[in-house]
Amino acid sequence: MVPPPVPPSVRRGIPGLKLFSMTAGLQRATLILGLSLVGIFVFAAIFAPLIAPYGFAQSASDGVDFVRQQAPSAEHWFGTSVRGEDVFSRVIWGARTALFVIAISLVLSLFVGVPLGLLSGYLGRWVDRVLVLFMDAMYAFPTLLLAIVVSIVVAGGRSTSFGGVLSAAVAITAVFVPQYFRVVRNATVAVKNEPYVDAARVTGASTARILFRHIFANVTQSLPVIVTLNGSEAILTLAGLGFLGFGIEPTQAAEWGYDLNKALSDVSNGIWWTGIFPGFAIVLVVLGMTLVGESLNEVLNPILRTRRAVAAAPGDAITVAGIEVAAPSELDGDTTEAEPAGDALVKDSTATGKETT
Q1: What's the rounded Cα separation, in Å, for the pair 171 and 244?
Q2: What is the pLDDT of residues 72-94, one digit of tens each?
Q3: What's the burial of 20, exposed, middle or buried (CB within 10 Å: 0-12/13-18/19+)?
C-alpha cells in the first residue's frame, strides 16, 4: 500500500517583504527613505523617556534654572525656549504626542467611516441618501475650521494630558471620516451586485455577514494608502490646532505646533533654534509618511502596476489578472508592419470559408 503523499509545508515569509520586493529603482529608494523617516519618528516616540534628557515642561535641573533662550550647546543640543525649556526634549516628547494623536484618530476614523460606508453602499435608498448628504456637508467644511470647532466642543475649555490628546484626535477624526466613507461606499456600490454577493444572499446569509465576510475584503485594498497619507495630514492638522492655540496645553504635553507659535516672536530677535527644530521635525515626519503612501499607491494600484510593467518590458508579453495579452510592440500600430492587401484577403477567406473575387 502506497502511503499518501505528504503535503508540502507552507513557507511564511516576513510580513511586508513581498510588497518590498515588488518595488525597484527609484521607487524602492523612495520607499526605503520614507520607512526610515517614519521608523525614526516611531522610535523616538516610543522611547521618548529614555532619549529625552529632560521632561517636556522641565526648566530646571538640580535646583538650577536653565538659561532662557540659550543657543544650542553641549548641555542643550537644540538650545532652550523662552520659558527655559530644553528644545530637544520637547521635540522628542512632541513625537510621542503626535504618535498618540495619529493612532487614536486613524483608529476612530476606520471604526466609524468604514462601517458607515459599507451600510450606505449596500443598503442604498434613503439610508444612502441621508448618509451621503451628511458626509458631503462635513466634507465641504474647511479642514482646519472643522477641527477647531470639534476641538472646542470636545475639550470644553479643559485640556488635561489625556483630554487634550483625545480632543485633538476626535477633531482630526471628524475630518477623516468622510474620506473613508466615500471610498468604501463607492467601492461597495461597485461590487454589491457581483455573483459572489448574490450567491451569499441566496444562501440566506445575514446582512452583517455579507458586509464583513464577503464585501469588506474586496473594498478595502486602497485603505492602507489612505491611512498612510492621512497620517501626514493628521500631523499637519494637529500642528495647526496647536499653532492657533486650540491644541494641547504646554504643561500637559509637548506639541510642535504650540512651540512654533511661541517661536514667532523669537525670529525677529535672531533666535532661530526655537522654531527651526520643531518645524524641521514636522517636515521630516510628513515627508516620510507621504513617501511611504505614494510608494504603496504605486505598488497596490493595479493600473499603475500594469503601466510600470509595460514600460519595464516593452518586448515581453504582459500578464494581467492571470491572462496573457500581446506584447506592447504587437499592440502598437506604428511599429507593426502592414500586411499586403492580397495576403489579408486570402487569410480572411481562409478563416471564413468564403471565396474572394
Answers
A1: 14
A2: 888 888 888 888 888 899 999 99
A3: middle
